[in-house]
Amino acid sequence: MTGPPRAGGHVCLSYDEPAAFEAAARDFLAEGVAAGERVWYLAPAPPRDWSFRPELVRLGDHYPEAGVIDPAAGVAAYAAATERALADGYLGLRVAAEATPLVRTPDQLDAFARYEHLVDRYMRGAPFSALCGYDRVTLGDEAVDELACLHPVSAAPFRLFALAPGPADAGLAGELDWETHDLFARALARADPRPASGEWVIDADRLTFIHHGCLLHLDAYARAQGLTAVLRTRSVAPALLATLMDLTALRVESAG
Questions:
Q1: pTM (2 decimals)?
Q2: Are residues 95 and 131 in contact, defined by beta-carbon separation less than 8 angstroms?
Q3: Which of 14, 19, 49, 142 has its CA 20 to 30 A from that of 134?
């Protein structure tokens, strides 16, 4: 399991046994029932011995199971489903989806990772939450980490996630060391920020370590996109590193 489900939010769960996903989905969706939300369960088999009945949705009815997801279309579909839930008198929509079949090929994985961050942005301002399940035995550690790192709740080495409208556009948590610098570069490309101001502000208050190579990745990505990345952190180390490096598109600011 890559992180304990919490009330609402966007949670990534990896597992070795299908029963682990079903148990986590039960607890996650039960919270939704108690909160007055519509709850959907998308999995290969119906749940067993639950105290409530979620709406059972076939994976192929909501996702292109044999193809590659269009990230924007995927978000739009959940936005429409959330609006229908509200119109039907619910307070929101909560989904537990076993998504392993959607990310079996490299193209599927890349598109779905982009979708994960895009739908995370939608969740920041809508009564929609999701538990995304991935079979680690089937997919392998590397593929699961590529997906998990784009969720605010997971046990990936680091997490890059959206924030509600406010002083920062995105959040960054965990550790960015040398072993994760390639994963971080892929996560940046999939996040595809497009701030109207030209500055992409990242709240890194929960980031415990960042390797200088990851600062270089962030600077290079922002420069290629015509942006200025602003990393806000309480740690003094990133600012000290930045002064020693030729960073033209990254500014490190104190979050204190």
A1: 0.91
A2: yes
A3: 49
The pLDDT tens digits for 60-115 are 888 988 899 999 999 999 999 999 999 999 999 999 999 999 999 999 999 999 99
- Domain ranges, ordered by start, for the chain: 10-155, 170-254
Query: What angle separates helix 212-224 from helix 181-191, to the nearest 10 degrees?
Result: 30
For residue 36 the two structure tokens come to: 């007055």
- Contact status, residue 119 vs residue 74, Cβ threshold 8 Å: yes
Measure the CA–CA gap between 152 and 147, rounded to whole angstroms: 11
Where on the phi/psi map is residue 105: left (φ > 0), alpha (ψ -120 to 50), or beta?
beta
- The number of residues making up the chain comes to 256
Q: Which CATH class is domain 170-254?
A: alpha beta
Structure tokens at 22: 């079903």
